[in-house]
Write a structure and sequence with these properties.
By secondary structure, this protein is α/β, with parallel strands linked by helices. It has a single domain, classed as Aldolase class I (TIM Barrel). Helix content is about 25%, strand content about 20%. The chain has 9 helices and 15 strands. A 9-stranded mixed beta sheet has the order 7-6-5-4-3-2-11-12-13. A 6-stranded antiparallel beta sheet has the order 9-8-1-15-10-14. The chain is globular. The two termini are about 20 Å apart.
């Protein structure tokens, strides 16, 4: 698909997105996940450090007339002893919280905390998951009128049929958004290189599969994009649509990552996006941290994170020349 501009659609203009990797400890050790995401090698930041930076985010958003939208991941963030307290604090202050989880916490934990969760991205990991338990958690979240639920089935090529079977089961039992997520080498290690190998048939299965379209009449701060075609036509797509169709090379484009969103690493370093191009722009320890106000020029061939894909992007007339001559990172 040829297009010239991509805007964050939905309610994106009302929010600033903070995508935060809180810790790298996980109770799973999936074969396709780098130890940087599950080894527990990096000590989680102190709670007061997090709260101090969150206060600054709220102040900044208020100055713009916007609200903060926090997407919290890991590791498995629900393992943090103070995670529940953090989520409720943001919620009670009027911010939105979405989390990325493998659904391994108890059903009671999910029932207790779902009112504070604006969104949940459940990741299905075929090597470890309890299918029945996963479905039960999904039902709790899908039944919440104030929580968006998206299930990402991580399409392990070695267990592809298992993943397809579960995705179909989930679609039959739970009304929620479901995506078959292709895997990339380098996931969790500061840069993606290439997709795992899939057959043409497998690739078509992933492209065609969709879960349910769900509208709970609650804000949609991230995930939808408005694509402008060369003829002036606008088409609304999801970030997943672009990912699975491999329309994620924006080398040479002007990108608003850092203006509309930031990402924060386990150690507290702040970047414009998960491609990490241009280097860090600050840390959560900086008392005078300022969000960027100018767009950057994309140098990354694979824009894989949904939050990053949604950042406004404008194609430059010389994009092809830039792509051919620039030293490109593969983040």
């Amino acid at each position: 698909m040829e297009f010239i501009k991509l805007d964050n659609a939905g309610d994106g203009e009302k929010y600033i997105n903070i995508n935060w990797a809180l810790m790298n400890q996980c109770n799973y050790e999936c074969s396709y996940c780098h130890p940087d995401l599950n080894s527990g090698s990096i000590k989680a930041l102190e709670y007061d450090v997090l709260v101090s930076f969150i206060n600054r985010v709220f102040d900044y958003c208020e100055s713009l007339g916007r609200k903060p939208y926090f997407e919290l991941g890991g590791g498995e963030v629900t393992l943090l002893r103070w995670f529940k307290e953090l989520v409720w604090d943001i919620h009670n202050r009027g911010g939105l919280v979405s989390i990325i989880s493998n659904a391994s916490k108890s059903l009671n934990w999910w029932r207790e905390n779902v009112p504070a969760l604006h969104g949940v991205y459940l990741s299905y990991h075929s090597e470890y998951v309890d299918d029945d338990k996963f479905v039960d958690v999904a039902k709790i979240l899908a039944d919440s009128p104030t929580t968006n639920l998206t299930v990402n089935v991580m399409m392990n090529p070695q267990r592809f049929e298992q993943c397809v079977s579960f995705a179909n089961r989930l679609k039959n039992e739970v009304v929620c958004e479901i995506s078959m997520q292709p895997l990339y080498h380098g996931f969790g290690h500061g840069g993606l290189t290439k997709r795992y190998e899939y057959t043409d048939i497998q690739d078509e299965i992933m492209k065609k599969f969709r879960g349910h379209s769900v509208n709970k009449n609650i804000p949609k701060p991230r995930g939808l994009v408005s694509v402008e075609m060369p003829n002036g036509e606008f088409i609304e797509r999801s970030s997943f649509d672009l990912l699975v169709e491999q329309e994620i090379n924006f080398v040479g484009w002007s990108c608003n990552a850092g203006i509309e969103n930031i990402v924060i690493t386990f150690k507290g370093d702040i970047y414009r996006a998960w491609c990490m191009q241009d280097g860090p722009i600050g840390t959560v320890f900086d008392k005078d941290f300022d969000f960027p106000i100018e767009p950057t020029l994309c140098k990354t061939k694979i824009c894989q994170c949904g939050a990053d894909i949604c950042s406004t992007k404008i194609k430059n007339p010389i994009s092809r020349h830039i792509e051919n001559n620039i030293i490109m990172k593969t983040g």
